[in-house]
Amino acid sequence: MEESLVRVSHSGAVRTLALNRPHALNSFTGAMHGELRAALDAAANDREVRCVVVTGTGRGFCAGQDLADPAVAPNRDAGGGTADVGAAIERYYKPLALRIRSMPVPVVAAVNGVAAGAGANFALLCDIVVAARSASFIQAFSKIGLIPDCGGTWLLPRLVGRAHALGLAMLGDKLGAEDAARLGLIWKCCDDAAFPAEVEALAARLAALPTRALVATRKALDASQELDLAAALSLEADAQRTLGAAHDFQEGVAAFLAKRPASFSDR
């Protein structure tokens, strides 16, 4: 029996999805996409899950697209032409990116090793990215004549500005985790020895926070990038109106006044 391409494990309200092709640095295949999407959907539909962690097994987080996989990679036909590379984006990477950004719980990318190409941008799509100091990020697309995908063209300028985005995308240089944190590409870099405990503590902390408010925060921050100030203020009012009528707001205020820990349950 073949081993799963995505290992699923649980710790309380935290679900961890580990990409599991360590021999290939967890590079994407069509089969892995299928298992990953199913695992993300299952986590989204399980009301006991309040945080999802995505990581990799072995030495890498995800080395991007496996160019040897015929289910996803462009293939040369008998006439010497190439298949529609964009079809793989539409079939696999666009749904994956939109699934991550629509998850009803916070998503943490625990980058344990190299994150390259679509693997790097898959990590950056997550809400919070924590990387081991030995990890690295590479926008490898220019080296094979392509542009950043899996949301890379949208993400990079928003995270690090146009100048750094162009440098990273055009040159395709390896960026160490410490430099990635310094540029604001990721949330945090931590020593390899402390990495597992750091991720566990962060995920547990997020799982204990008001999930619905965290997801609304993500949506509001993303939407505000396309709004003027007045429209952003209106968006905030709409979100606060909804959240203010929910259990977690009432519980949060009651806990604050009583000087006790809050017990959040909305999702």
In short, what is this structure?
The chain has 267 residues and is α/β, with parallel strands linked by helices. 46% of the residues lie in helices and 16% in strands.
Provide the fold topology.
Layout: E1 6-11, E2 14-19, H1 30-45, E3 51-56, E4 60-62, H2 85-101, E5 107-111, E6 114-116, H3 118-125, E7 128-132, E8 136-138, H4 152-171, E9 174-176, H5 177-183, E10 188-190, H6 195-208, H7 211-224, H8 229-244, H9 247-258
Parallel strand pairs: 2-3, 3-5, 4-6, 5-7, 6-8, 7-10
Antiparallel strand pairs: 1-2, 8-9
Helix pairs in contact: 1-2, 7-8
CATH superfamily of the largest domain: 2-enoyl-CoA Hydratase, Chain A, domain 1
Structural class: alpha/beta
The rounded distance between the terminal residues' Cα atoms is: 36 Å
CATH topology of the largest domain: 2-enoyl-CoA Hydratase, Chain A, domain 1
Average of per-residue pLDDT values: 94
Strand tally: 10
CATH class of the largest domain: Alpha Beta
Named at the architecture level, the CATH assignment of the largest domain is: Alpha-Beta Complex
Q: What is the general shape?
A: globular
* Spatial order of the strands forming the largest sheet: 1-2-3-5-7-10
Series of H and E elements: EEHEEHEEHEEHEHEHHHH
**How big a fraction of the residues is strand?**
15-25%
- How many distinct folded domains? 2
List low-pLDDT spans: none
How many separate helices? 9
